[in-house]
Amino acid sequence: MTRDMAHHAPEASEFYAELRPNRSLSRTGFIVVLAGFAMINAVFATLFVVAGAWPVSGFFGLDVLGVTAAFWIYRRRWADVSEIIDLRPDLLTVTKIRRRRAKRVWTCQPYWLRVELEVTGEVVGPLWLYSHGRGLRIAEFLGGRDRREFAAALRVALARVQP
User: Fold this and answer.
1) How far is CA 133 from the centre of its chain?
2) How far, in Å, CA of 29 to CA of 3, rounded?
3) For 79-100, what is each residue's pLDDT tens digit?
4) SS3 115
5) What is the mean pLDDT of the chain?
C-alpha cells in the first residue's frame, strides 16, 4: 500500500482505511512551478517579438493560462477529499468527504457486499462496492496499482467477516 492509504484498525474493526489523494505539490510549489513556466514562456515570447513574429507571442500567454486553469481545476477537484472505509463484523461504512459538500455515508451488511474491480487487459478501472442492487464507486483518485492492492486487501478482510 502507498502512503495515501493509511491503515489502522480502531477497536472492533476488521479493516479500516483513510484514502486521500496524493498532493505532492504544495501551494507554494504550485506558485513556483507556475512562475517558472511563465518566465520561460516570456523569454520565448520575447524572442518571437524580436524576430518580428509578434502575433505568436500571444499563444505563449494562452499556454500559461491553460496550464494555470488545469492546475486550478485539479487542485479544486481533489482538495480536502477523503474516503474512510470501516469494515466491522456486522457493518461496512464508507464515508466520503468532499470540500464544500455534505459528507456522504454509505452503509451495508458485509454478508451481502460484493467488491468488483473493473480490469481490462493492463488497464485498471473503477472499484465498486455492490450490495442489494446499489453500487458505490470508491478510491477514484488512486492509481491503478494502488486501487488493485486496495481491492485485494478489502476482499481479504471481507472474507474474514463473511461466513
Assistant:
1) 25
2) 20
3) 778 899 999 999 999 999 887 7
4) strand
5) 87
Sheet containing strand 123-131, strands side by side: 114-120, 123-131, 134-138
Residue indicated by cell numbers 481490462: 120
Tell me the Ramachandran region of residue 86: left when phi exceeds 0, alpha when psi lies from -120 to 50, beta otherwise: beta
At a CB cut-off of 8 Å and minimum separation 6, what does 132 contact?
108, 112
Contact criterion met (CB below 8 Å) for 125 and 117: yes
Answer whether CATH 2.30.29 is correct for domain 5-22+81-161.
yes
CA torsion through residues 97, 103, 106, 107, sign: positive
Rounded (5°) CA angle 112-129-14 = 70
CA-wise closest residue to 124 among 143, 138, 152, 150: 143
Domain boundaries, the chain: 5-22+81-161, 27-78
pLDDT tens string 114-125: 999 998 888 899
